[in-house]
Amino acid sequence: MTTISVTDLHDRVTRIFTGAGLTPQNAASVATVIVNGERDHCKSHGIYRIEGCLRTVQAGLAVPDAQPELHDSGKAVIEVEAHGGFANPAFDHAKDALVARAKETGIAALVIRDCLHFSALWHEVELLAAEGLASLSMCPSYAFVAPAGGTEPLLGTNPMAFGYPRQGENPYVYDFATSVAARGEIELHRRAGTPLPKGWAVDKDGNPTTDPEAALDGAMLPFGGHKGSAISTMIELMAGAMLGERMSKEALEFTGANGTLLPRHGALVIAMDPAVFAARSGRDPIDEGERLLSAIGAQGARLPSQRRFEAREKSLAEGITLTDAEVAQLDRFEAQGLAALD
């Protein structure tokens, strides 16, 4: 095992992506969300994701030097064209405009067009919570999930995140796939040779399976049965159809891949200013929220992301621990660039 500081790991991952042709700004943005995943002990969205990003660049399905382009008509909806680049630099490019519009009008939406998405969504809603905004972030993915009662993959894992600001505390944040688990979790089980929990997936014939290989060849399942299926469908409609961007089935057809390459589609971020919503009430929306969140904690219940925030604090103080195999892979990527994939 090797321990490396958050800053040093960020520098290493940034060099890997600049070596693959990303601009320094794009490389640093992508590296930030990957390293933040490791920092917060979210292994399924940490350095494990580097290979998929590089393979997508190598396949010519990512534009590594894409320059995000902001389109702001002065209305509630702001758009940023990723031009086939990664979603993270596009969000970073448009974030200040989104924050300003939300504080001006109370609510604003950011449409990210033609982007490659692989990262957890909590990164975005945390940044908006730091600006005093509540927010929702969502996107389709690849059609790997069967709708409740079905057997054929049609929906994506379709993640959704929500953030709400707190005074002097980490924000209230949840981020989850609408499938029972993220596809990356199944891939990690496959690599480790461990069975899946029951209820995660069905095989290609629609039979329940705990075999990661059979699950990857079959279909994942939505969480909560028909309820998770309905939420996943909502995300397909809001972050796909409503934006005029690819939905999960189209994204899979576009790449012609089996999930080893990143999906290319759109994303939607909705930002809301609690101060504007509560202005006429005479009540402080942050204090009101804190009353609820404190009461949850007083019962001994753990808030979403609490473990992640605890892991973050430890990583910032003590560094991030990587296995020898993970360090060796970083060494190969940094030394050989895209050639390391061969």
From TrEMBL:
Has the keyword Oxidoreductase been applied to this entry? yes
This protein's name: Ldh family oxidoreductase
Print the keywords alphabetically. Oxidoreductase
**Domain of life of the organism encoding this protein:** Bacteria
Family according to the record: Belongs to the LDH2/MDH2 oxidoreductase family.
